[in-house]
Amino acid sequence: MSTIPEMKAETLEQKLNNNEDVTVIDVREDEEVAEGMIPNAKHIKLGNLPEQYRDLDKETDYVVVCRSGRRSMKASEFLKENGFSSVTNLEGGMLAWSGDLSYK
Known about the structure:
Keywords: Transferase. Residues 18-102 form the Rhodanese domain. This is Rhodanese-related sulfurtransferase. One of its GO terms (molecular function) is transferase activity. The chain has helices spanning 9-17, 30-33, 49-52, 70-81, 93-96; strands at residues 6-7, 23-26, 42-43, 61-65, 86-90. With 104 residues, it is of the alpha/beta class. It has a single domain (6-96), classed as Rhodanese-like domain (Oxidized Rhodanese, domain 1, 3-Layer(aba) Sandwich). Strands 1-5-4-2-3 form a five-stranded parallel β-sheet. Strand 2 (23-26), helix 2 (30-33) and strand 3 (42-43) form a beta-alpha-beta unit. The mean pLDDT is 95.
């Protein structure tokens, strides 16, 4: 069982609408992101995370998202194992997201 906390999509949408200090990392593939992503999310494909996580601030609050929540849970666990203090998985992933979308 994972020790990574999960956040509901509605809660994340409220935090973003209230301009709370949270950074979304989208770990989906390029073709998935082309269908729309959470506005201002950082796109780091899951396969690229081992090379790119060093560019992230370990003290920032991150919410990690994928299509359904499985890949983002793996990414969240990876970040936690590498010293990130505040990592949350988006429960249900983009399938649960009904908020605004941005397009690359």
